[in-house]
Write a structure and sequence with these properties.
Layout: E1 4-8, E2 21-24, E3 36-44, H1 51-68, E4 75-78, E5 85-89, E6 95-101, H2 109-114, H3 124-127, H4 130-133, E7 149-150, E8 152-159, E9 162-170, H5 176-195, H6 220-226, E10 233-235, E11 252-259, H7 261-271, E12 277-279, E13 282-284, H8 298-318, E14 325-326, E15 328-333, E16 351-355, E17 359-360, H9 361-364, H10 370-382, H11 386-397, E18 405-407, E19 417-421, H12 427-430, E20 440-442, E21 451-455, E22 470-477, H13 478-481, H14 494-507, E23 511-513, H15 515-523, E24 529-533, H16 539-552, E25 555-559, H17 562-568, E26 573-574, E27 580-581, E28 588-591, H18 599-606, E29 611-612
Parallel strand pairs: 6-8, 15-19, 19-21, 24-25, 25-29
Antiparallel strand pairs: 1-6, 2-5, 3-9, 3-20, 4-5, 4-7, 8-9, 10-18, 11-22, 12-13, 14-17, 15-16, 21-22, 23-28, 24-28, 26-27
Helix pairs in contact: 1-5, 7-8, 8-10, 14-18, 15-16
Protein name: 40S ribosomal protein S12
Keywords: Ribonucleoprotein, Ribosomal protein
Domain Ribosomal protein eL8/eL30/eS12/Gadd45: 496-590
Length: 614
């Protein structure tokens, strides 16, 4: 089966059953940035899976899912005068479904699973077409301002032992929870095709955006009264200014962390340990304060903790005045906060930002203030009431040009911080297209900075992780990520230097492991250093590795023990005492990326062509 593009229409459109329509987006839809919500879901497939049947079932399931959510098949348009967005549908509209055999571009399912599905290996350029990955960010219609903008694009990527589903849906048409609802509908329809079951009926309530708009525009007096009610949003009164002519985009890195459930419970308990007190505009937690706890969520504690740590990590890079303010804003899903709540499968934008009271940087980074920060996160969330949402849509409707709405935060290379959560998405229980639910949901390597994303917990699907909790990703400049990775002082032994280089490469997702992946990296000249186990029994692979290193002048170090190399390459579990357990032997590793240059790199390079018996 060759690579191809299937242009999918909703059921009945080409038969004249459906009439074209103009679907106006809600006031709330205009709050979101002009980019795509990107999602990658990784599925396991048996080696004998019928790929033709998989594609056919997903194709037919998509046809019916688009019937349930027809706006996705239309084109996005904008009113040049007032910046009002709408979707226009026609009977000849289609949604592209790309089918790609990516066995040579994306790691195998087994390799992704072994590495806990790192986002760097699921880059948007690998799992989605250029049609969406090369669009300009924060532009209403991207690069094709005079053409119809596709609202939804999907790509099925077959990999060895699995499938990666790439999803791109325009953010002005849906938020993350809405995309989750659509994928649930698509999965149900595809599974119905596979099992011969009937499709679920179309529910028009899922499409009703009217409750997220104000029916009449406020007069001048009312608009003036609403100004300043929502400090997290601002009306720029025009396009944002371009960056300075000499601005150079820094290298960005996305790092994932896993917080075990037991540690999350411990963090929540710590964040709720004492009630904070205030002293004028300076907030502090006092040792002799009220010890009675007050309610906060695990989300509040986690976001407060990460805000503290990222702010601290930015200090060497940005060197801010510690008395200057830092602000946190986090996304709130308003579906259940509205009265009455929106339908559970509503698709649109029903999220807004909750703004935490700004604080001096020195107060944010004070470890004693963790309870205070967590409580401020909760307080900001509680301000998102039905009444506040009504006023927000009223403010939006009174603007002269809705394209000028922007988040009022200095998070990109600044000291503010933004957070979002997909923790309540149903991927691991509801996105079964007929071959099981995904084993991982990821945000494909986003080009953001100063941003936290919380993924759904994989506790229910990862049997070995009895203490599984939350997975989070933080996007930051490389310099920030490396703050805690200081070079060791003094003279390094070759063994210590090699361990340090491999550790640094692992942190930067720059380490290829295994003979096959190492040979590919060497052949593509992506390697800085190769480490080979001399006792490897794969004679042909050894010859190939040595020949590629010699041909491309890549440094080669040989070691004597595969288990030791596996430990250095992170193929083990670390117990509470810091000792490696369940070590997986590794025959070869290749360093593709090490981040900033460290003394260890030079020491390790000097050891090339030597054998280290460990």
């Amino acid at each position: 089966m060759a690579d191809r593009v299937i242009y999918v229409s909703p059921v009945g459109w080409k038969d004249g059953v459906y009439q074209p329509e103009k679907i106006f987006l809600s006031d709330m839809d205009h709050l979101l940035p002009r980019l795509y919500v990107l999602i990658a879901e990784v599925f396991e497939l048996p080696d004998d899976a019928d790929k033709v049947a998989v594609v056919e079932n997903m194709h037919r399931g998509l046809e019916y899912a688009l019937t349930q959510y027809p706006a996705l098949a239309g084109g996005l348009h904008v009113d040049d005068e007032a910046g009002r967005l709408w979707v226009k549908t026609n009977t000849n509209d289609t949604v592209p479904l790309y089918v790609v055999h990516a066995e040579d571009k994306i790691l195998s399912y087994a390799e992704l699973n072994e590495r806990h599905f790192p986002m760097a290996e699921l880059d948007s350029s690998l799992v989605l077409p250029k049609l969406v990955t090369e669009k300009s960010l924060f532009s209403v219609l991207g690069e094709n301002a005079d053409e119809k903008q596709p609202i939804a694009v999907f790509q099925i990527n077959f990999i060895r032992g699995g499938l990666v589903l790439g999803v791109a849906i325009h953010h002005n048409c849906s938020d993350g929870p809405g995309v989750d609802s659509f994928l649930t509908a698509w999965a149900e329809s595809a599974k119905a095709v596979a099992t011969g079951q009937p499709f679920a009926p179309v529910n028009p309530a899922f499409l009703d955006r009217t409750r997220l708009s104000t029916p009449t525009k406020p007069d001048a007096a009312r608009s003036k009264k609403l100004e300043g009610r929502f400090p997290i949003w601002k009306d720029l009164k025009g396009p944002p200014p371009p960056p300075p002519a000499d601005f150079k985009m820094p290298a960005l890195a996305s790092r994932m962390w896993h917080f075990p459930a037991s540690k999350l419970a411990e963090l929540k308990s710590l964040a709720a340990a004492s009630r904070p007190e205030t002293n004028g505009n300076i907030h502090c937690a006092t040792a002799n304060g009220n010890k009675s706890s007050w309610w906060i969520s695990t989300f509040d504690a986690l976001v407060a903790f990460v805000w503290q740590r990222v702010t601290l990590a930015k200090l060497p890079l940005l060197n801010p005045d510690l008395d200057s303010p830092s602000m946190l804003a986090h996304t709130v899903n308003t579906r259940m906060r509205m009265c009455p709540p929106l339908p559970d499968r509503f698709m649109g934008n029903a999220v807004t930002k909750a703004r935490v009271q700004p604080m001096p940087i020195r107060a944010v980074i004070d470890p004693a203030n963790l309870p205070l920060l967590a409580q401020l996160v909760r307080k900001a969330t509680n301000k998102i009431t039905p009444e506040a949402l009504d006023e927000l849509t009223e403010w939006i409707s009174g603007l002269d040009d809705r394209r000028n709405i922007h988040i009022n935060a200095n998070s990109f290379l600044g000291m503010d911080f933004l957070a979002n959560s997909w923790s309540h998405m149903n991927a691991y229980i509801a996105h079964d297209f007929g071959f099981g639910c995904p084993r991982a949901l990821r945000w494909p390597n986003p080009p953001f900075e100063g941003y936290l994303m919380i993924f759904p917990s994989r506790a229910g699907i990862v049997a070995k992780m009895s203490d599984a909790g939350d997975e989070i990703v933080v996007d930051a400049p490389v310099e920030e990520v490396e703050v805690a990775q200081e070079a060791p002082k003094g003279k390094l032994s070759v063994e210590d230097a090699l361990q340090q280089v491999l550790k640094n490469a692992l942190v930067h997702d720059g380490l290829a492991r295994g003979l096959r992946e190492c040979a590919k990296a060497l052949d593509k000249r992506q390697a800085h250093l190769c480490v080979l186990v001399e006792t490897c029994t794969e004679a042909e692979y050894i010859k190939l590795i040595e020949a590629l290193c010699a041909e491309h002048k890549i440094n080669l170090i040989k070691v004597g023990d595969a288990k030791v190399l596996g430990t250095w390459a992170g193929l083990c579990k670390i117990d509470r005492e810091g000792n490696p357990r369940k070590i997986v032997g590794c025959s070869c590793v290749v360093v593709k990326e090490t981040g900033k240059r460290m003394p260890a790199s030079s020491t390790a390079s000097c050891a090339c062509s030597r054998t280290l018996y460990t």
